[in-house]
């Protein structure tokens, strides 16, 4: 088996949509980035790439490449899953955490899980997503940004 860990963070800014797990969440600010800046999916992609020892998403989808400007991160995840399909491993499960003071994410977690499971081609029971605040501490607690972590297990075929 292979285990991968991923982490991503983006600054919250006005004039952008807030996309997490492929869900457009109504909020006064969104995440700044070259693509749709979906920190949850970015952390997941990094975890999968890490489990395969293939580097990180910046190597595969550089922010200097205009092809990825505004890119849908779920489509990028689909491309990362091609690496899994070409390997001697299969996706087993992912456990992810979003650190976000506001907005409250509980109403959107199931939709995020469904989007990710559909993209990966797995059962929703293989996708765990949790959201937490940081009690107003640090950049996420002050509302400056949102971060996410992901741990992935890939198993030998």
UniProtKB/TrEMBL annotation:
<feature type="binding site">
    <location>
        <position position="42"/>
    </location>
    <ligand>
        <name>a divalent metal cation</name>
    </ligand>
</feature>
<comment type="subunit">
    <text>Homotrimer.</text>
</comment>
<comment type="similarity">
    <text>Belongs to the IspF family.</text>
</comment>
<feature type="binding site">
    <location>
        <begin position="132"/>
        <end position="135"/>
    </location>
    <ligand>
        <name>4-CDP-2-C-methyl-D-erythritol 2-phosphate</name>
    </ligand>
</feature>
<protein>
    <recommendedName>
        <fullName>2-C-methyl-D-erythritol 2,4-cyclodiphosphate synthase</fullName>
        <ecNumber>4.6.1.12</ecNumber>
    </recommendedName>
</protein>
<feature type="binding site">
    <location>
        <position position="10"/>
    </location>
    <ligand>
        <name>a divalent metal cation</name>
    </ligand>
</feature>
<comment type="pathway">
    <text>Isoprenoid biosynthesis; isopentenyl diphosphate biosynthesis via DXP pathway; isopentenyl diphosphate from 1-deoxy-D-xylulose 5-phosphate: step 4/6.</text>
</comment>
<dbReference type="GO" id="GO:0008685">
    <property type="term" value="F:2-C-methyl-D-erythritol 2,4-cyclodiphosphate synthase activity"/>
</dbReference>
<feature type="site" description="Transition state stabilizer">
    <location>
        <position position="34"/>
    </location>
</feature>
<keyword id="KW-0414">Isoprene biosynthesis</keyword>
<dbReference type="GO" id="GO:0046872">
    <property type="term" value="F:metal ion binding"/>
</dbReference>
<feature type="binding site">
    <location>
        <position position="139"/>
    </location>
    <ligand>
        <name>4-CDP-2-C-methyl-D-erythritol 2-phosphate</name>
    </ligand>
</feature>
<feature type="binding site">
    <location>
        <begin position="61"/>
        <end position="65"/>
    </location>
    <ligand>
        <name>4-CDP-2-C-methyl-D-erythritol 2-phosphate</name>
    </ligand>
</feature>
<dbReference type="InterPro" id="IPR036571">
    <property type="entry name" value="MECDP_synthase_sf"/>
</dbReference>
<dbReference type="Pfam" id="PF02542">
    <property type="entry name" value="YgbB"/>
</dbReference>
<feature type="binding site">
    <location>
        <position position="8"/>
    </location>
    <ligand>
        <name>a divalent metal cation</name>
    </ligand>
</feature>
<feature type="domain" description="2-C-methyl-D-erythritol 2,4-cyclodiphosphate synthase">
    <location>
        <begin position="1"/>
        <end position="154"/>
    </location>
</feature>
<feature type="binding site">
    <location>
        <begin position="8"/>
        <end position="10"/>
    </location>
    <ligand>
        <name>4-CDP-2-C-methyl-D-erythritol 2-phosphate</name>
    </ligand>
</feature>
<dbReference type="GO" id="GO:0016114">
    <property type="term" value="P:terpenoid biosynthetic process"/>
</dbReference>
<keyword id="KW-0479">Metal-binding</keyword>
<dbReference type="InterPro" id="IPR003526">
    <property type="entry name" value="MECDP_synthase"/>
</dbReference>
<feature type="binding site">
    <location>
        <begin position="56"/>
        <end position="58"/>
    </location>
    <ligand>
        <name>4-CDP-2-C-methyl-D-erythritol 2-phosphate</name>
    </ligand>
</feature>
<comment type="function">
    <text>Involved in the biosynthesis of isopentenyl diphosphate (IPP) and dimethylallyl diphosphate (DMAPP), two major building blocks of isoprenoid compounds. Catalyzes the conversion of 4-diphosphocytidyl-2-C-methyl-D-erythritol 2-phosphate (CDP-ME2P) to 2-C-methyl-D-erythritol 2,4-cyclodiphosphate (ME-CPP) with a corresponding release of cytidine 5-monophosphate (CMP).</text>
</comment>
<feature type="site" description="Transition state stabilizer">
    <location>
        <position position="133"/>
    </location>
</feature>
<keyword id="KW-0456">Lyase</keyword>
<dbReference type="InterPro" id="IPR020555">
    <property type="entry name" value="MECDP_synthase_CS"/>
</dbReference>
<feature type="binding site">
    <location>
        <begin position="34"/>
        <end position="35"/>
    </location>
    <ligand>
        <name>4-CDP-2-C-methyl-D-erythritol 2-phosphate</name>
    </ligand>
</feature>
<dbReference type="GO" id="GO:0019288">
    <property type="term" value="P:isopentenyl diphosphate biosynthetic process, methylerythritol 4-phosphate pathway"/>
</dbReference>
